[in-house]
Specification:
241 residues; alpha+beta; Helix Hairpins; Immunoglobulin-like; 2 domains; 5-stranded mixed beta sheet; 4 helices; 38% helix; elongated
Length: 241
């Protein structure tokens, strides 16, 4: 294979990887909460940074392999012990990149984990071996899962919902993949998250922390509806009006 063909192959592979990486959410589901979108955006920045750095590294390696491949009677390349400008650049640039990524991570973490002083709705979420219970604060409505019937967590679209998470037995984990967020339920530890669902729909939820023999059956659903529909549902005691 000629040097030109090698270079063409390298460029084609790199371009294909970039095109594939640009599809969708880079492996994540479409987020359905404002908090999930923040996490998705940070993920995109990290992945694109990795792709660009990888392309530069592999491009330089390919260039060196092609440009300085061994030839008959090739002269020995110039030897230099130090190259201060280059050393400064390859030390400073990674530090800057890491600093920027750290700053973005801290900002996103603060946004995703922050809780409102006055949420529109509070739901007490209890995970126990091996089911879920959802109690709506300010009402007598409590939804508890039973074997063979997963509970449904109904939430209003466009409102800030506080989920108070607790466990009376072992560690569980509240995970809705489409929220792009999970949070552990730890005995004797108060834990809470705010979620703001941005669209109507229904999604599957799981316990993502191994909690015993029936762990895989510890499931629930989240259904997001309009504010008016939610109020009617709540006033009707959790039944369809």
């Amino acid at each position: 294979m000629t040097a030109r063909r090698r270079a063409g192959t390298i460029v084609a592979v790199a371009a294909s990887l970039l095109l594939l990486a640009g599809c969708g959410n880079l492996g994540l589901p479409d987020p359905v909460t404002s908090q999930g979108k923040e996490s998705r955006d940070l993920w995109r920045i990290f992945v694109w940074t990795a792709i660009i750095i990888g392309a530069i590294v592999y491009g330089l390696v390919g260039f060196v392999v092609v440009r300085y491949r061994r030839q008959r009677q090739a002269a020995e390349p110039g030897q230099r012990q130090y190259n201060v400008p280059v050393e400064i650049v390859y030390t400073a640039v990674p530090l800057i990149i890491v600093g920027v990524l750290l700053g973005l991570s801290i900002r996103t973490q603060g946004t995703v984990t922050s809780t409102s002083d006055d949420p529109d709705l509070t739901v007490h979420v209890t995970g126990f071996q091996w089911q879920w219970q959802f109690a709506y604060e300010g009402s007598d409505l409590t939804i508890t899962g039973v074997p063979g019937k997963d509970p449904v967590l109904v939430l209003p679209v466009g409102q800030t919902v506080r989920l108070e998470l607790e466990s009376p037995d072992v560690v569980h984990s509240f995970w809705v993949p489409d929220f792009i967020e999970k949070r552990d339920l730890i005995p004797r530890v108060d834990n809470a998250i705010d979620v703001n669902v941005t669209e109507a729909g229904e999604w599957q939820g799981f316990c993502s922390e191994f909690c015993g023999l029936a762990h895989t059956g510890m499931r629930f659903s989240v259904r997001a509806v309009s504010t008016d529909e939610f109020r009617a549902w709540l006033a009707n005691g959790g039944s369809e009006p």
